[in-house]
C-alpha cells in the first residue's frame, strides 16, 4: 500500500550505522521516535556484540548484523553509511571499507577528532563525507549537531544530511577547523550540565531535602534557566545580574564559585575537550599508510 505524502517519512533512503554505541543509538532513537525514517530502512552493524544488536533490534525494530559476509554486502550497497565506531577501531575499519565503496556512497562521520582529509586518506579515495558532531540529546529530538562537508558533496546530498540531523535537533554548519571547539561546547556539553546537576542535587540532600525533592528542584531550575535565555533573548550575564542582589544569598553563592575560579575552569574544560579531540585526530592521522 502506498503511503500518503503526509505519512511518508522525511528520509526514504536506507541508512547503515557502522557501529552501535551510545551516539549511534541516540540518533536512531531520535529518528525512530519522531517517525523520520522507517525502522526497516535503518541497519546497525558492530564487530561482534550480538547481544547489543539484539537489544537494539528489539527496542527500535531496526535491521542488525554482525556476520562478516553479510556486513560486507550491506556496506557495499548502502547509499548512506554513518561511521559510528570507536575511534580506536576507525583506522582499520576505514582501510577495509575504502575498496568496496562506490563513488556515490555518502559517509557521515560522528567520530570525534576524525577529519575529512584523514578519513579520505584512510579510505584511499575522495569519498563524499559529512563530518558531524552530534550530542546524545538527539535521542529526544533536542540535539545540537555541528556539520562540515567535503567538497565532493553536492547540494542534494548536503540537504539529505541536514534533514537527517535537523530531525533530531538543531544544526550548525561550520568550517571544519572549528569542529574541535564545537566538540568542547556542544558535543561533550551535556556532561558538564549533568555534573553540575549532580553537585546541586547532592547539596540539597546534604541540606535535608529528599533525593527526589532535590532532583526535581535542580532539574526544573536548569530547564527554566535555559528557557529564560531562549525566550528573553537576553545575555546570561544580564539575567544573572537581575537575580543577584548586593550582599544577598545569590551573590554569596557566586562569590564562592569565583573563589574556585569557576568561569575560567569551565573555559579550561571546554578547551581541554577540544584539545583532546585534536589529539585523537592526530592518532588516527598517524595510522595512514
The value of Rg in angstroms is 22 Å
Query: Globular, elongated, flat, extended or rod-shaped: what is the shape?
Result: elongated
- What would the CATH topology of the largest domain be? Rossmann fold
Q: Helix/strand/pairing class, anyone?
A: alpha/beta
Structural commentary:
By secondary structure, the protein is an alpha/beta fold. The chain folds into two domains: 15-174, NAD(P)-binding Rossmann-like Domain (Rossmann fold, 3-Layer(aba) Sandwich); 183-277, ProC C-terminal domain-like fold (Orthogonal Bundle), CATH 1.10.3730.10. Helix content is 54%, strand content 12%. The protein contains twelve helices and eight strands. An eight-stranded mixed sheet has the order 3-2-1-4-5-6-7-8, sandwiched between helices. β1 (15-18), α1 (22-33) and β2 (42-45) form a beta-alpha-beta unit. α7 (179-187) packs across α12 (262-285). The longest helix is centred in the last third of the chain and has 24 residues, at 262-285. The termini are far apart. The mean pLDDT is 94. Its EC number is 1.5.1.2. Pfam families: F420_oxidored, P5CR_dimer. It catalyses: L-proline + NADP(+) = (S)-1-pyrroline-5-carboxylate + NADPH + 2 H(+); L-proline + NAD(+) = (S)-1-pyrroline-5-carboxylate + NADH + 2 H(+). Catalyzes the reduction of 1-pyrroline-5-carboxylate (PCA) to L-proline. Pathway: Amino-acid biosynthesis; L-proline biosynthesis; L-proline from L-glutamate 5-semialdehyde: step 1/1.
Amino acid at each position: 500500500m502506498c503511503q500518503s505524502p503526509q505519512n511518508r517519512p522525511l528520509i526514504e533512503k536506507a541508512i547503515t550505522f557502522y557501529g552501535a554505541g551510545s551516539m549511534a543509538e541516540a540518533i536512531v532513537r531520535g529518528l525512530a521516535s519522531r517517525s523520520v525514517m522507517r525502522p526497516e530502512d535503518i541497519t546497525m552493524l558492530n564487530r561482534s556484540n550480538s547481544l547489543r544488536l539484539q537489544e537494539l533490534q528489539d527496542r527500535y525494530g531496526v535491521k542488525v548484523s554482525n556476520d562478516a559476509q553479510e556486513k560486507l554486502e550491506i556496506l557495499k550497497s548502502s547509499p548512506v553509511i554513518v561511521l559510528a565506531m570507536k575511534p580506536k577501531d576507525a583506522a582499520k575499519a576505514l582501510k577495509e571499507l575504502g575498496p568496496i565503496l562506490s563513488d556515490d556512497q555518502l559517509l557521515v562521520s560522528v567520530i570525534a577528532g576524525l577529519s575529512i582529509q584523514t578519513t579520505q586518506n584512510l579510505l584511499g579515495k575522495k569519498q563524499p563525507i559529512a563530518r558531524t558532531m552530534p550530542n546524545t540529546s538527539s535521542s529526544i529530538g533536542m540535539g545540537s549537531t555541528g556539520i562540515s562537508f567535503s567538497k565532493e558533496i553536492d547540494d542534494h546530498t548536503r540537504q539529505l544530511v541536514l534533514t537527517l540531523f535537523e530531525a533530531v535537533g538543531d544544526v550548525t554548519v561550520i568550517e571544519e577547523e572549528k569542529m574541535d571547539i564545537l566538540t568542547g561546547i556542544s558535543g561533550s556539553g551535556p556532561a558538564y550540565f549533568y555534573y553540575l546537576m549532580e553537585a546541586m542535587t547532592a547539596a540539597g540532600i546534604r541540606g535535608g531535602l529528599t533525593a527526589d525533592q532535590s532532583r526535581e528542584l535542580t532539574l526544573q531550575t536548569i530547564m527554566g534557566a535555559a528557557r529564560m535565555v531562549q525566550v528573553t533573548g537576553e545575555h546570561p550575564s544580564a539575567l544573572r545580574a537581575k537575580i543577584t542582589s548586593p550582599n544577598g544569598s545569590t551573590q554569596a553563592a557566586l562569590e564562592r564559585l569565583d573563589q574556585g575560579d569557576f568561569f575560567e575552569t569551565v573555559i579550561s574544560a571546554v578547551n581541554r575537550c577540544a584539545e583532546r579531540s585534536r589529539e585523537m585526530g592526530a592518532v588516527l592521522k598517524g595510522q595512514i599508510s
